[in-house]
Design a protein that fits this description.
Elements (H helix, E strand, L loop, with lengths): L10 H4 L5 H22 L3 E5 L18 E5 L4 E3 L2 E3 L18 H17 L1
Antiparallel strand pairs: 1-2, 3-4
Helix pairs in contact: 2-3
Length: 120
């Protein structure tokens, strides 16, 4: 991140930054999650989204932030006895695509992530 202009603002630009400490905290969380997904599942990269439009479809919208992380894989990922392929790697992904991962594999991933994050 050393060459990222948004991570390395000048002192002049920093005086206009809102929530600077909070961004630092969020960035650390994002880095930990990405490190976890790369270490335990071999993710090549992660796509992050934060959209609030759906909240305004309700009669009484209650908007709040949800961040979604979508790990992306150039090679098949093996979990238990199953192999998963990211058929949309290097392309935009379908938003309403049905999940192909088994509940058992989801649980196994969750356990592996919790363990990794508790140790790192």
């Amino acid at each position: 991140m050393s060459n990222c202009e948004w991570c390395n603002l000048s002192d002049e630009d920093k005086k206009y930054t809102l929530y600077e400490d909070e961004w630092t905290d969020l960035r650390l969380i994002i880095q930990r999650i990405e490190s976890c997904l790369k270490a335990i599942l071999g993710a090549d990269l992660c796509n992050w989204t934060c959209l609030l439009n759906n909240f305004y479809k309700d009669d009484n919208p209650n908007p709040h932030v949800h961040l979604h992380c979508r790990p992306r894989y150039s090679k098949p990922v093996v979990i238990g006895d199953n192999s998963y392929i990211d058929e949309e790697f290097a392309h935009h992904y379908a938003l309403k695509k049905p999940s192909k991962i088994t509940d058992e594999d989801k649980q196994n991933i969750y356990v592996m992530m919790k363990e990794f994050l508790s140790l790192n």
